[in-house]
Amino acid sequence: MDDGANIITIDAGATPTRRGPGRPSRSNAELLDLSLDLFARNGFERTSIDAICAAAGMAKRTVYARYGDKGTLFKAALERAIDRWIVPIERLRAVEVDDFEQTLARIAEILVANIMSPAGLRLLRLTNAESGLMPDVGAYAVEHGTGPTLAYLADLFRRKTDLREDGLPNAHEAAVAFLHLVVGGPANNAAWGVLPGQEAIDRHTRYSLRIFLHGLGGAGAETDMGAGRAALEEDNLRLKKLLAETMIQLDQARDRSA
Asked: In angstroms, rounded to a whole number, what is the distance separating the alpha carbons of residues 186 and 28?
C-alpha cells in the first residue's frame, strides 16, 4: 500500500487496555503495526518488549513465542511496512504515455507523493536510524523497497532511449540518478525535520526532472531528450568529415614528396 493509510498511532502516555480472559490475542498484523509505531516513536534501543506488550495488551510469552526477540520483531515489522508501502510496478506502467518527459513527470509525481507520505517518511527515518547497527535492515529496504522501482526505471529508459549497459551513463545508473535527483530531494530534507510545502515539492520535482533530462544549461528550455543526441551526432559527423579531409591532404602531401 502506497498511500500511508492504516498507520496505527499509540499515545505513549495512555494507559494500555488489557485484554480480558478469553478475548482473542491480537493478530500478527496488529502486533507488527503497533510495534513499528513504537519503534518509530522511541527508536529501537528505547523500545522494550514490555512496552510493546503493554500497548498490544499481550503477554510477553506470546510475543516471544511468535518472534523470539526484539530484533526479530523489529525486522518483521519493518519488512511488513516496506512491502505494504512500495508502489506496485503495475501502477507505474499504467501512467506511461508516448511522450517520455510526460511519462517521467507522472512517475515522479507518484513516487514523490509516496515517499513524502507518513508511511514513507516513517520508513525513511527508521531505516536511516537503524541500518548502521543492522545492515540487513538497510539491505532489505534497498532490495525490496528501492530495487523493483530501479529495475522498472532502467527497463523504461532502455525502451524509451538509447541508453545501453555498456555506455555511460547506462540505464541502471540513469535510474539511480533519477531517484536521487528527482525523488530523493524533498524526502531527504523531510527526514531531517524540514517539511516543505506541496508547492515547493512540486516546483523542486519539475525543476529536477528538467535537469535530469536536459542538463543544467537546459533546465528551463522546452526541448526534448533527442535534441542533445542530435547535436552529438552532428558533431560526430563533422569530426568524421574533418578526419577524412585531413587523411586526403596527408596522402596528397606524401604523393608530392615522393
From this structure: 33
Fold of 1-85: Tetracycline Repressor; domain 2 (1.10.357)
Task: Check for a shared fold between 1-85 and 86-224.
Answer: yes
What is residue 220's three-state secondary structure? coil
The residue whose grid cell reads 507520505 is: 117
For the chain, the structural domain boundaries read 1-85, 86-224
The fold for domain 86-224 equals Tetracycline Repressor; domain 2 (1.10.357)
Cis ω before 169 (30° cut-off from 0): yes
146 and 156 Cβ atoms separated by less than 8 Å: no
DSSP state for residue 87 in the 8-state scheme: P
Residues 171 and 158: beta-carbon distance below 8 Å: yes
> Per DSSP, which regions of 74-164 are E strands?
none
Determine the 3-state secondary structure of 56 from DSSP: helix
Which of 152, 150, 87 lies closest to 113 in space, CA to CA? 87
The C-alpha cell at 91 is 501502477
Within 13 Å of residue 159, how many CA atoms lie on the same side as its CB?
14
Distance CA 41, CA 14 (A): 14
Looking at this protein, which amino acid is placed at residue 69? Answer: D
pLDDT in tens, the chain (258 residues): 444 433 333 333 334 444 444 344 568 899 999 999 999 999 999 999 999 999 999 999 999 999 999 999 999 999 999 999 999 999 999 999 999 999 999 999 999 999 989 888 888 888 888 888 888 888 888 888 889 999 999 999 988 887 665 555 688 889 999 998 899 888 877 777 777 788 888 988 999 999 998 875 544 444 444 555 555 566 556 555 655 655 566 566 556 555
